[in-house]
Amino acid sequence: MTLLDVTLLLPLLGFVALLLLPRSAENTIRLAALVISLIVFVLSLGLTIPFYETPSGNAFVTDVPWIRTPEIRYHVGVDGLSIWLVILSTLLTPISVLVSWKYIDNRVKEFYAFLLLLEFGLIGVFVAWDLFLFYVFWEVCLVPMYFLIGIWGHERRIYAAVKFFLYTMAGSVLMLAAIIYLFNKAQTFDYVNILNLLQSGRLVLSSTEQMALFLAFFFAFAIKVPLFPLHTWLPDAHVEAPTAGSVMLAAVMLKMGTYGIVRFCLPLFPSASRECAPWIAALAIIGIIYGALVALVQPNMKKLVAYSSVSHLGFVVLGIFSFTQNGLDGAVYQMLNHGISTGALFMLVGYCYERTHSLEIKDYGGVATPAPVLATVFLITSLASIGLPTLNNFVGEFLVLQGTAQVNFTWTVLAAIGVILGAAYMLWLYQRAFLGETNEQLKGHMADLNARELAAALPLLILMVWMGVYTKSFLPTISAANARVLEQSKQGVEFRVDLNPHPGLAQLGEIAHGR
Amino acid sequence: MEHLWLIPALPLAGFALNGTVGKRLPQIAVSLIAVAMPVLSFLWVLKTLSSLGSLETAYIERYFTWIESGALNIGVDFMVDRLTAVMLLVVTGIGSLIHLYAVGYMAHEGGYYRFFAYLNLFMFFMLTLVLGANYLLMFVGWEGVGLCSYLLIGFYFVRKSAADAAKKAFIVNRIGDFGYTLALFLMFVQFGSLDFGKVFAAVAPMPVEHSAGLLTAIALLLFVGATGKSAQIPLYVWLPDAMEGPTPVSALIHAATMVTAGVYMVARSAVIYQHAPLAMEVVAIIGLLTAVLAATIGITQYDIKKVFAYSTVSQLGYMFLACGVGAFAAGIYHVVTHAFFKALLFLGAGSVIHALEGEQDLRQMGGLRKKIPITFAVLCCAWVAIAGIPPFAGYFSKDEILLAAHHHHPWMYWVGVVTAAMTAFYVSRAMFLCFFGQYRGHHHPHESPFIMWGPLAVLAALSLFGGWYFKVPNYLAPLFPLAEGGHEMALVAISVAAGVLGIGVAYVLYVVKPGLADSIASALGGFYKLVYNKYLVDELYDAAVVRPIVHGSRSLLWRVVDVGLIDGCVNGTATLARGVGGVLRAFQSGNIRNYAAWVTLGSVAVLVVLGIAVGGAR
Questions:
Q1: In chain B, which residues have their Cβ closer than 8 Å to the Cβ of A399?
Q2: Is the separation of the CB atoms in A225 and A288 below 8 Å?
Q3: Cα–chain-centroid distance for residue A73?
């Protein structure tokens, strides 16, 4: 048993343990969930140790058979790409426990059990190196989230839960088909083996096959991201989900999609990925601007943050499909950043909801006067979200745009418009909710953050600054893993990749010359 | 090691202290922390500069790597050369004085600790901006001062106008930053670095672009950033609104330091601009246009802070004119003298406002010279300085700029002279309306305490003699060689005469024949109204940009595209989903054992199906 196995299985044990506790022992259940998830978090920190020595390595690999026929292996491990996503999952789980402490008062046992099951699934997705195992974890995540929304959500929870479920299923069915197809060709589900076969030429996919498989995988991932125009499940799911559900959904689950693209699509199907890159980049840019514009006019706080996620994740996808070191590094960094800042935003919106039972912006106003600490935390989080330098998102956005600028300057110009709009919708939200005269109806209801609420927010605030200032703690491992992905994504590329490093510049010159 | 990092770190410590525990500290402790930090920072600047000596070449300290990805390597590196030295002295020197003044000015305001925490944070970012040795670190300061500007404009956040102004400042600056960051991306793609040293070394041997090219694009994009931060056409609209902030903020951020960051950035990038004459021409023309336009608006305003705000916009225009015609040293010279007299004007105005318990309308003032004589005396020093009367501060720098403009294009000189006359006029108008004639208000004016007029006295001395004493262009000569040829006395005399004329006309209109100004205004009718309403630029932007974006997003993108079109397509699935939802609801017994059973069953089902599928495929 490696440390990774323990980290992965402990939440599952916790899930079972919680189910065994008596239903009435609500505080014991909460405490147990908190303790278990904290232990998992501490263990997961240990996973980083090997990477300080060799940032480019794989670590904690376990490869044992799980099912004989068809041969499915329990093959797990972490590298620079997955390590931080694992830690993101293990960090946000105890935070979600804290956030739900008072908020969830019915079926407490089931709630926390599902939260731990979700954590199990999420960690599994990020560490699985067997395609079938990956698929199993992918589906394991779906179930608890479906129930979190469906049972503890708001009025239209069933609609949102089913929409979420079907949307995701539509994609994952295709992915399953693609996985099975690959198995038939390669006689293995093992990702590492398949990759070796492909790279050594012992397994050859025709360009049609490659394109079809790429699209099947990509479709599943793109729904999860969500990439425009596959995003409409997201606002509904977020609005209806309980706070912890929104936090886990935004912070970690969306990253399953972008992680999948980097982990599987690029290395397995390099030619198809590159061939589709301009189209996907176009959708990403539309998503960046469209998401921001629609966020601007949302009357509901959660919907606003949900649409802002569409915009932010557009940057991630754009960075990935720039096929540059900077773009990929920025994209992966941005996955973590978005997890932290948007996770925090949903948490804070949840705090507001607990006090007033409203998500409508117009029901707020002047909250900064009765709740200055809440207002300050919200402001810092908003500033992180809009990419203020010294906070985390700036680094990611900068790298993404810098990477994009190396391949197509027009993309950079368009995507950078999203940065302006980002400031507009967040600061407008902040002004309407927190500044001005205190709304009469709020008086007496807007208590400031208590110690528990602040404790849940504080780690995220610290990370915003840490990841914005001292990227050396995180970026080298990510960069090393991405260098490998980039190398893999050049293998056997059939058609000539556009080698002109900056066609955008030529266009710019032409514009300047008035041609 | 000179420990340059201490210069910004000291105010950062002040921010951290007051920001976290300031609420629980007594006011005196908050003030002590808040003032001590910039003062210590100033002393450290002095100590550093004296030990660095002549600074013929840049001195660099490297701390740690900020961002490393592939070929991109951005370090947290600080650099001091003569240009930085000038800026450091202005920022920490004037900054310390204004902090001291604010202790008196803000004494009875709520949120005292918050105010000083923000002000210290501003110092940190401003010092990072001028010390940064690469474009990205400069951008950290650049955005950071923008944040502090946002926080301080919106200091009285309960007032909607203040919150609006703060948001406007941030977003308009973001539009400028859009250009700045695009310039950075181009720069890195082209030169593989954002370090000043490497970029300039790469640019220096390149041929001058006589027709537009890459360097022109970079230079113009950088200038877009400058138009935001330094309030130039077309992005100047946030600065007048920024006067919603407390007056010391207007003096420190929106007059003396932050708004000159754009000038500093352009001067820092001089090598790039010198290779892009077209971009220089644009800088000069935008600067000149802004100078004229803002001066005309300044003439018509009645809010004393608004007058000075438009004056700042106008004076910044002069600085860009200087840069645009190649007289970078003159531009920085004007940054320095302007910092002296404009900080003084604002702080003096603050003293007036303080005396009148918040009154800012010039029509409610008058005859104050006897009631608040110290304030009057110090403001007179700023008055003669900005009007360009020799040998006071503004005269020297403005003279340098106008001569350089004449050397470039004589018509630019003449427009500059007309603007100089208008400058002298609007400041004189404000002074006459405020201090001469009869008191028209109904407050009981009282002189400000020593802690306020002490700093004013220092600034007054600087406004009078600072231009003569600090020969900035000579000091900067290693960076920006002095212009050839002597001063043409006729041109100097004309510009001085323009200043005197401006004062004279104002004297006639507002002291000798009060009322004449109003009849001239009504004779001009529509035109006067247009200028008084700031050429309706805000309304134009609102109608042409803000409303279309908001309404288009709401009615078209959200309601039609998102809800109608995309979700409409999903509706087919949604109908199906309702059916499935009905089935799934039956599963929701609420019994966890059932759920667990379903999860297990589902997984097994998947495996079985898969086994069959795979087996069948074989």
A1: 67, 69, 72
A2: no
A3: 26
In chain A, the number of structural domains is 1
Range B413-449 burial, b when 16+ CB lie within 10 A, else e: bbbbbebbbbbbbbbbbbbbbbbbbebebeeebebbe
Q: Which residues of A touch B567 (CB under 8 A)?
A: 232
> Which of residues 110 through 149 in chain B touch A, CB cutoff 8 A?
136, 139-140, 143-144, 147
Q: How far is B371 from chain A (nearest CA, A)?
A: 36
Contact A19 B596 (CB under 8 A): yes
Q: Where residue A515 falls among pLDDT bands split at 50, 70, 90?
A: very low
Residue B436 DSSP symbol: S
Using a CB–CB cutoff of 8 Å, tell me whether A57 touches chain B. no
- Which neighbouring-strand residues pair with A75? A63
Interface of B with A in 576-615 (CB under 8 A): 576-578, 580-581, 584-585, 588, 590, 592, 595-596, 599, 602-603, 606-607, 610-611, 613-615
User: What residues make up the domain containing A434?
Assistant: 279-515
User: Mean pLDDT in chain B?
Assistant: 89
The answer to whether residue A222 is domain-embedded is no
Give B143's strand partners. none
Residue A470 burial (CB count, 10 A)? 14
Of the pLDDT bands very low, low, confident and very high (cuts 50, 70, 90), residue B614 is low
Q: In degrees rounded to 5, what are phi and psi of residue B356?
A: -100, 20
- The amino acid present at B459, given as its one-letter code, is L
A150 touches chain B (CB under 8 A): yes
Beta bridge pairs of residue B60: B79
A77 occurs within a structural domain = no
Question: How many Cα atoms are found within 13 Å in the side-chain-facing hemisphere of A53?
Answer: 6
- Can you give the pLDDT at residue A500? 43
E strand or H helix at B59: strand B59-69
pLDDT band at B97 (very low <50, low <70, confident <90, very high): very high
Structure tokens at A303: 């919907």
Residues 291-350 on A with a CB inside 8 Å of B are 293-294, 296-298, 324-326, 329-330
Whether residue B159 contacts residue B167, with contact meaning beta carbons closer than 8 Å, is answered with no
Grouping H, G, I as helix, E, B as strand and the rest as coil, residue A57 is coil
Strands A72-78 and A59-67: antiparallel
Task: Flag whether A188 is in a domain.
Answer: no
The tokens describing B47, both together, are 């100590």
d(CA B352, CA B360): 8
Q: Is residue A26 part of a domain?
A: no
Residue of A nearest to B586 (CA): A158
Give the whole-angstrom CA distance, residue A98 versus residue A14.
16
Q: Which of A18, A390, A454 to mutate to test the interface with B (most CBs of B within 10 A)?
A: A390
Q: Chain A interface, mutation test: which of B67, B173, B281, B571, most A Cβ atoms within 10 Å?
A: B67
Q: Is A116 within 8 Å of A93 (Cβ atoms)?
A: yes
State how far residue A294 is from chain B, nearest Cα, in angstroms: 6
Q: What is the ipTM of this complex?
A: 0.91
